[in-house]
UniProtKB/TrEMBL annotation:
InterPro entries reported in the protein's UniProt record: HAD-like_sf, HAD-like_SPP, HAD-SF_hydro_IA, HAD_sf, PGP-like_dom2
Protein name as annotated: HAD family hydrolase
Gene3D superfamilies, A to Z: HAD superfamily/HAD-like (3.40.50.1000), Putative phosphatase, domain 2 (1.10.150.240)
Keyword set, alphabetical order: Hydrolase
Source organism superkingdom: Bacteria
MF term (GO), any: hydrolase activity
Amino acid sequence: MERPPRAVVDLAVVDAVVLDTDGVITDTARIHAAAWKRAFDELLRDRGRQGGAELPPFDVASDYPRFVDGRSRADGARGFLRSRGITLPEEGGPGGAGPGVETLGSLLDRKTRYFLDEIGTHGVRAFPGTVRLLRELRRRGTGVAAASASRNCGPVLHAAGVDDLVDVRVDGLDADRLGLPGKPDPALYLEAAVRLGASPGRCALFEDAVVGVEAGRRGGFGTVVGVDRHGSLRGPMLDAGAHLVVGDLVEITVVGGARRTRGRGEGPRGA
């Protein structure tokens, strides 16, 4: 069977590239999903026992892409819990929850602990097709940013051995510090473009979540590439504004050359 034509990123019209981290650069989306499931299911079991009725557990296949994937951890948690009729106090302390009461903050901390335990035990794998693309972009002098709503973007890139392949990192710590709203607002990606010294219209964005594709469209990115690794999001990604959808970045062919764009933000080791 004849193979379909490979997708092309033309550096004559692309000055810089922004990539989502989890699911695009690193195979960590599944680890995030597993950590969320563990944290959510513990809470749901406790609430079910208290209310005398079992609550449906977190479903990785449906609940993760619908509520969590691509969003800030707080927004994702709030959205999923609302679907189960649960609202948690934001924090403990004066005016908040009392000692021993589950809060949104304690749930998020537990999820982070489960995630870090998992990558500490099993490590992190970068997708080979993405590594190939990153090396090719560096060879051609194209600025590259890694972006993520996660606060753990730095440790993840380092554990995967790819932190030296990106010029700029913008993550959940930056979002908190700068007050950047979560996706589908494009603020996180626009900040990455600013640090690369490139206009969004001259940037290519790679995203594996529909909400992230929508953020790219809203931000006016010149090329928005949806990464549909499981073959189930092509239609929704195109509807959300993707210019093209691929199953893996090995399908991407880079042509042309670009003037080196210098990041104006902190580099991968200091961000």
